[in-house]
Design a protein that fits this description.
Shape: globular
Number of strands: 31
Distance between the termini: 17 Å
Structural class: alpha/beta
Largest sheet: 6 strands, mixed
Number of helices: 21
Mean pLDDT: 88
Length: 673
């Protein structure tokens, strides 16, 4: 079968800066063939614009009929970036059976921030027995909350053993407000209420963002006559249907990096490697072992929060081509600092807004002395106005001043206090700030040419004027500061790769050791003690800027760095070569001797016989997994069931404590006929 007569697969990756597209065919060898690839800027205010730009370019390059596309699969870093940058919609957290003291556990209070929380009596014990539920306080608060939040997160005590109280609260909220509600038992069957609440809270924040992404993609596909199923990559590298992902967007954290691992393995054939994927906002580092990515059994950690989402054991760092460039405070010879916040590169802002940007930068250059606010411009992101609900008076006033044309921050802010207000608007995803980034530095040095190099040079000139601890300019020219920025990015890339390797080996103080080793490697006077380190496997460098930033990696990590030919679209390629994989779990407990309680899905049943309870649990999880597999997008799932028992022996007699039954369903996604 030729590539032309074979079904075509369209892969899309929506990143923080670029949206990638790739057209792939199973024909053309063991690994198939990339027929065309393209990039377009991610347009956060209207994601369909970036998607259409990338996909239309691919269709034009391949000169193919859109109707020949039988499957569309998408990965995204939007959820990951939102958590790293502290973004997301304002949501209300409903805690049933918990106390205010529980907010202090597992980072829940820090994640909640200023979002509202409602406590209700209720919940269950470890065996699923109910306390008295009282939702009157929640019902009274719903009219006001419904007007100021974008969704709700509901977590009840021991809901994994009996979800009845979460279901009651969920139904009440939906009936009164009509807003999206996430219940914790839908996301995880693990114990640990505060961390489950944290995961549920983050999921609720991400729903509107992922919903907009899926809607934009579906609208675009319909407009182009592409009648193919739409799949989304989860954080463990598996594929699920778009409808499935809309309800559980938290599972798409690390979606882009997970897809990149699948793509890296597919492109290089390497079974053992450290994969480092550098994007505009983050660098994501993971390990391939025997052809499979390592998974994190404790749950993914993103933006400093440990979730209950099973995902690749990926370490995500706020380091990328669009990272904010700042100076170390209070040092005689201040270091260049990068990230973790993403800025809009001024080269990109100049390309999009022209004189509105360059006039302000030139004005600041003409000033006698540099200012801390030089080279910073604020602009609205263009998200729907409803997402600006719940702003404080100060936030609303500042937001009103910012429009769709970039405004210099030194003209916008009249006090230092307003800087914190601007940062909060950025965290809400309402405002972008443009500033000097490594992408600008690359434009100054002629190593990147897709945006406006003249604006980038103005940005570098402004940054070079900043003063060190002696009052001297930190660099002699835009080129000199740009070289320092790019060198810093390569050095920090080596540090995060080594930090990941040390952490995987279980070493404490991984970040400190990695920094010391890389510093010795680049220092012309390495010291009395000679230190060196070498990875036991090569690095696979992914991302459009990997050839630039990773060229100097080998001497810093002690091994080769392989950058595949299609590294710039690794995520999009990985999105179309994966499989659907979903699971279902049941717990069998013994609340009293001779009584065996099965908690599976949203049901709780009692049996008088252990074998009957285990058989019922296996039947339940098989049916639930099969249903989830169909919902996730496959009609050909194979199901495997595993059971784990906790027992004790008392006076020679076996005593049943608990059983954990898991069904895993996997298969290739269905394609259009």
């Amino acid at each position: 079968m030729t590539a032309k007569s074979s079904p075509l697969f369209l892969g899309i990756d929506t990143g923080g800066t670029y949206t990638d597209a790739v057209l792939w065919s199973e024909a053309g060898g063991a690994n198939g063939k990339v027929l065309a690839k393209a990039k377009a800027l991610t347009t956060r205010h209207d994601l369909a614009v970036g998607i259409s730009g990338a996909v239309d370019a691919v269709l034009q390059k391949a000169a193919t009929d859109p109707a020949a596309i039988k499957l569309v699969s998408m990965s995204t870093t939007l959820a990951t970036n939102a958590l790293v940058e502290g973004q997301g919609g304002r949501v209300a957290l409903v805690m049933i059976g918990f106390s205010e003291g529980d907010l202090a556990r597992d980072g829940l209070k820090a994640a909640l921030g200023t979002d509202p929380v409602v406590f209700c009596p209720g919940g269950h014990d470890v065996h699923g027995n109910a306390a008295k539920l009282d939702l009157s306080g929640l019902e009274a608060a719903l009219p006001e909350l419904g007007a100021s939040v974008s969704g709700f997160a509901v977590c009840a005590y021991f809901a994994t053993r009996n979800p009845a109280h979460e279901l009651s609260a969920r139904n009440l909220i939906r009936d009164i407000t009509g807003l999206p509600v996430t219940a914790s038992h839908e996301l995880s069957a693990k114990l640990g209420g505060p961390r489950r609440a944290l995961t549920t809270l983050l999921n609720a924040r991400l729903i509107s963002m992922i919903d907009r992404l899926v809607a934009a993609t579906e609208d675009f596909l319909a407009a182009r006559g592409i009648a193919a199923p739409l799949m989304v990559v989860r954080g463990d590298g598996a594929l699920v249907s778009a409808a499935f992902a809309r309800q559980r967007p938290i599972e798409t954290i690390l979606s882009g990096p997970a897809a990149s691992l699948v793509g890296a393995r597919h492109m290089t054939g390497l079974d053992n490697a450290v994969v480092s994927d550098i994007g505009g906002t983050t660098t994501d580092v993971a390990v391939l072992d025997q052809g499979r990515p390592r998974l994190d059994p404790e749950g993914a950690t993103v933006g400093g929060f440990r979730t209950m989402v099973e995902a690749v054991a990926m370490r995500t760092f706020g380091l990328g081509g669009d990272s904010e460039v700042t100076l170390e405070d209070g040092a005689l010879n201040p270091r260049i600092l990068l990230g973790p916040r993403r800025l809009v590169p001024l080269a990109l802002a100049g390309m999009m807004h022209g004189e509105a940007v360059t006039i302000e930068l030139e004005r600041q250059i003409r000033a006698a002395n540099p200012s801390r606010m030089d080279g910073r411009l604020a602009v609205r992101t263009g998200v729907p106005e409803r997402l600006a609900a719940g702003l404080t008076g100060a936030e609303a006033k500042l937001y009103e001043l910012i429009g769709s044309t970039p405004l210099a921050v030194d003209r916008l802010l009249t006090s230092n206090a307003q800087n914190a207000t601007l940062n909060r608007l950025m965290s809400r995803g309402l405002v972008h700030v443009a500033g000097f980034t490594p992408s600008d530095a690359a434009h100054v040095l002629g190593k990147q040419a897709n945006w406006d190099a003249a604006t980038a040079r103005l940005a570098a000139e402004l940054f070079a004027r900043k003063r060190d601890g002696r009052g001297q300019a930190i660099a002699a020219s835009p080129e000199a500061i740009s070289e320092r920025v790019l060198t810093t990015l390569t050095r920090l890339s080596a540090e995060v790769i080594l930090e990941t390797a040390f952490a995987e080996d279980g070493l404490d103080g991984a970040a400190t050791v990695a920094h010391a080793l890389v510093q010795r490697a680049v220092d012309s006077h390495p010291g009395i003690a000679r230190l060196s380190v070498a990875l036991d496997r090569p690095v696979i460098g992914l991302g459009a800027s990997a050839p630039l930033h990773y060229a100097g990696l080998p001497p810093l990590v002690g091994h080769d760095c392989v950058v595949p030919e299609d590294t710039d679209v690794a995520n999009a390629l990985g999105a179309v070569v994966g499989q659907v994989r979903v699971s279902a779990e049941a717990r069998v407990s013994q609340p009293q001797e001779g009584l065996f309680r099965v908690a599976s899905g949203e049901s709780v049943r009692d049996f008088n016989d252990e074998a009957a309870a285990i058989a019922a649990a296996e039947t339940d999880v098989r049916a639930i997994a099969a249903g989830r597999a169909r919902d996730a997008g496959t009609d050909s799932a194979e199901i495997e069931i595993a059971s784990e028992f906790r027992v004790s022996t008392v006076e020679g007699q076996r005593m049943f404590i608990e059983a954990h039954v898991v069904a895993v369903a996997s298969g290739r996604p269905r394609i259009a006929v």
